[in-house]
C-alpha cells in the first residue's frame, strides 16, 4: 500500500509539471526499474535512498526563481561595438543542477551549451563564446562587458565546468555566454536563473 501511495504522489507531480525540463526525470517513474526502487523503501537499509528520492521530489516542487532583470540587448553598444551574433536557437543551461536543489561544498557546476561552441576569451571565432557563472546576481547589463568579480565569474580558458565554494545558505546561479571581449551575444544567450541551497 505504501508503494502505491508513493507512486500516486509521483503521478500527481508528473501531471503538474507536463512540459517542464524535468520531463525526462518524471518519465523514470514509469520505468519498472524505478518502480522497484519505491518497493525497496520498505527496507530500512534503503532509507538513505528514500531520503535522496524525497529531496529530488522537493526540488521539483520548488517555486521557480524570479528571472534576473536584464537590459534589452541591442546589436551595437553605444561605443559602436558590433556585438557577436548568437546562433539562432543557441541555449546555455545547467547540466547537473536544478532549481530548488540542496547541495554541499564544493559545488560542482557543469555548463551545458547547444547551438554554439566554446572558445577561449580573446579568440574571435563566429558562433562561439565563453561561459560566465553569475552568483547571486539579480540584475545585469546585456550591453556592456560582464564585470569580473566573485558574482560574475569568467571561464575565459574555455572551461565547461567548475567547482565553487559558497557560503552556507540560499544562492542563485545563472549562466551567460559572452564573446571574446566578455560582451553578451545578441540576442543574449543565458540560462534559467536557479536557486540552490548550500548546506
Ligand atoms: Cu568573460
Shape field: elongated
What is the level-2 CATH architecture name of the largest domain?
Answer: Sandwich
Question: What is the total tally of β strands?
Answer: 11
| Text of the CATH class of the largest domain | Mainly Beta
Strand content is 25-35%
Question: How are the elements arranged and paired?
Answer:
Layout: H1 2-16, H2 23-28, H3 32-40, H4 47-61, E1 69-70, E2 91-94, E3 102-103, E4 107-114, E5 117-118, E6 128-135, E7 139-140, E8 152-155, E9 161-164, E10 169-178, E11 194-198
Parallel strand pairs: 1-7, 3-11, 5-6
Antiparallel strand pairs: 2-4, 4-9, 6-8, 6-10, 10-11
Tell me what the structure shows.
With 199 residues, this protein is of the alpha/beta class. It folds into two domains: 2-61, no CATH class; 69-198, Immunoglobulin-like. It has helices spanning 2-16, 23-28, 32-40, 47-61; strands at residues 69-70, 91-94, 102-103, 107-114, 117-118, 128-135, 139-140, 152-155, 161-164, 169-178, 194-198. It is elongated, with a radius of gyration of 20 Å. The two termini are 34 Å apart. It binds copper (II) ion (CU). Copper (II) ion binds at residues 121, 130, 132, 146, 154, 156, 178, 182.
